[in-house]
Input
Amino acid sequence: MFRELLRKKQALTREECDQVLENALRGVLAVNGDDGYPYALPINFYYDKTAGKIYFHSGKVGYKVDCLKRSNKASFTAEDQGVRGDGEWWLTIKSVIAFGIIEEVTDKNEIAEISRLLSYKFTSDKEYVEREIEKYLDATLLLCFTIQHLTGKTVREK
Output
């Protein structure tokens, strides 16, 4: 069902894919848009390595939500910051792409906990995080992307 990576020498291990997803602040979520056009949007996320799930928070209405009501299949990609060697102008970048199914999380406790974990990627201010969760919990849509296929590769952009 999912295609194999052509350049197998550039393939990342599962552990390397996990590292990219754990360290990236943002990625790009692609869903099935109107009239067969893909809709891809930059988005922040939380990756649960143990469960093999990626979480996104959202408002409850909008184009992304409409797209997911029609089809819950999606892909998600993220990359590291890249490394530039001494005297090199190019970057060596590790990137991943995941394919999977997105479902809504409805349990309020789980929404709050994942929102906390996502927020702590950006701030360590616990009081601020708790205030925001209390204020926006009922308005938050939490989306759970269950990874069905994950690959990654190293690219030297030269």
Remarks:
- The two ends are 32 Å apart (CA to CA).
